[in-house]
Amino acid sequence: MLKAVLIMFVAMSLIPAGDMAGKLLTGPHGVSPAFVAWSRFALGVLMILPFTPRSAFGLLKDPRIWFRALLLAGGIFSIQTALRTEPLADVFAAFFIGPILSYVLSALLLREPTTTIRSLLMLTGFAGVLLVVRPGFGGTTGLAWALLAGCFYGSFLTASRWLSHLGSPLALSFTQLFVSGLVLMPLGLMHLPTLTPAVAGFTTLSALGSMLGNLLLLVAYARAPSTKLAPLVYFQLIAATGLGWAVFHDFPDAITWAGLALVLLSGLASAALRR
Fold this sequence. Notes:
Elements: H1 2-26, H2 33-48, H3 55-59, H4 63-85, H5 88-95, H6 97-109, H7 116-133, H8 141-162, H9 169-190, H10 197-223, H11 226-229, H12 235-248, H13 254-272
Helix pairs in contact: 1-4, 1-10, 1-12, 2-4, 2-9, 2-10, 4-8, 4-9, 5-7, 5-8, 6-8, 7-13, 9-10
């Protein structure tokens, strides 16, 4: 269980790093969210292909594999669209409906065990998220995209646990990259940006962070039930806060630090619980 927790921490750091690069692309550099989403998957396929086992190609015959990949494609496209117009904090606040949804879906659909204390810890972690972001939901289109991204992501987390037995984490990672890249290819090619060194660098960072993060997520979910690991997804917010501090010089205040402590402590406590 401890190894799964450590893997989750690394994965949840890499994914926000990819999102930060995506925000820099869609903001200052004016790149389309469609291209950012597609390039993540296209470059991810190229990075992982030399290490992909032959068994991964056989998985593409399973409709459930396509369903899971489409959830990820929808989530990445939605969050990049949200990040184009909305503040990072508000987007993450809306996006974190995902872990709650995953916790509920895993309990209802996968019959994974839940306890009162673990449920309370999940709610405590969510309260910490609210302390960090203190969102002012104005019902904007961008926040609607962020909420949609969270719903896609929560469903993807549950689907990852549901299908983890079908293949190795490497094989499953290849299928999600390949299918998502194939589906988003028309949109990506329609919005090709001018390739400058900055655009190329951020595009590569966006793809690398997403690919490695989601690969490690699969490794963690193959080692432990998602009901125990779901609270650790909140660590993305901690990583995003650190990246925001480093890139945008946005230093957290006392209330934010209190929220981060709640998120981290509730996640660790929930992961430490045994059946």
